[in-house]
Amino acid sequence: MLKGDALDLCQKEIYPYIVFLPPDEKYWVLKTVFGSEVAIDILNFSIKQKISKKIYQKDLVKTLPYSNKTVIKHLKMLTKRGILRENMEKNESSGRAVWVKYYLLSDLGKWFALLLAEKSDLTEAEKTEIFCSIFKSYVKWVKEISQKLGVSKRVIRGIFNKEMK
To answer: Does 35 lie in the same domain as 97?
Structure first.
């Protein structure tokens, strides 16, 4: 019979989180995200504004309590570790064309955002997008591992079909 904290844990809703990390960089990816309040705040910013929207440095500096230099440093780290993707767009300002840098969460970045998000932070469409992305990556991973282990596709399909009934 379970008592105390163990019983409380079993009665709580548990949400399974899966994050695929590059094996040779997993330490650095995790350190980049969880070793820094700034990185967490950038991910939380992206959740609040909806995870598929562009993240502009100026909006981060305006919203977060960090200097421009600190924000840039962390944007570069998050980009280097594959959590953000960096892009450029052309904007018109006072009759001049100005190139502006923006960031988007990568699939990995969305997974980390999902770890931090509350259920109410994400729309059903965003949850569906993240779920499908995770499932696609998981299937690729299962395929690669099963090939290395010599497990046939027939066995994998059988397991899948049985669990989907």
So the answer is: yes
What is the tens place of the pLDDT at every residue in 85-102?
Answer: 999 998 887 888 888 899
d(Cα 134, Cα 77) in Å, to the nearest integer? Answer: 23
Tokens 């998050």 belong to which residue? Answer: 78
Q: Note the pLDDT tens digit of each residue in 129-164.
A: 877 877 887 888 888 888 989 999 999 999 989 988
What is the number of alpha carbons within 13 Å of residue 85 lying toward its C-beta?
A: 11
Task: Please name the amino acid found at residue 12.
Answer: K
CATH of the domain at 50: 1.10.10.10
The pLDDT tens digits of the residues spanning 31-63 come to 877 788 999 999 989 988 888 889 999 999 999
By residue range, what is the domain housing residue 155?
Answer: 123-165
Amino acid letter at 29? V
> Is 137 domain-assigned?
yes
For residues 22 and 58, state if they share a domain.
Answer: yes
Question: Of 59, 36, 40, nearest to 117 (Cα)?
Answer: 40
HSE-CB for 80 with a 13 A CA cutoff: 14
Residues 6+ apart with CB under 8 A from 46: 53, 55, 105, 109, 113
The dihedral formed by the CA atoms of 131, 137, 139 and 141, expressed in degrees to the nearest 10: -140
